[in-house]
Amino acid sequence: MLQIKNLSKCFEDLEVLRDVNVTVSQGEVVVIIGPSGSGKSTFLRCINLLETPTGGEILYLGDNILQLGKKVTDYRKQVGMVFQKFHLFPLMTTIENVMYAPMKLNKVPAKEAKEQALKLLEKVGLSHKADSYPSSLSGGQQQRVAIARALAMKPEILLFDEPTSALDPELVGDVLEVMKQLAGEGMTMIVVTHEMGFAKDVADRVIFMDGGYIVEEGPPDEIFTQPKNERTKAFLSRVL
Amino acid sequence: MELNFTKAFGTLLPSLLGGVGIVIYITLVGFAFALVAALLIAIGRLSKHKLLSRFLGIIIELIRGTPLLVQLFYIYYVVPTLINGVLAALGYEANVQLNASTCGIIGFAVNYGCYMSEVIRSAILAVDSGQREAGLALGFSEQKVLFHFILPPAMRNSIPVFGNYLVMLIKDTSLLAMISVQELLLRTKTYASQTFLTVEAYTILALVYLMLSLPLSQLGGIIERKLKRTQ
Question: Which sequence ranges are marked TM in the entry (chain B) (predicted)?
Answer without folding.
Answer: 20-43, 55-76, 96-115, 162-181, 201-223
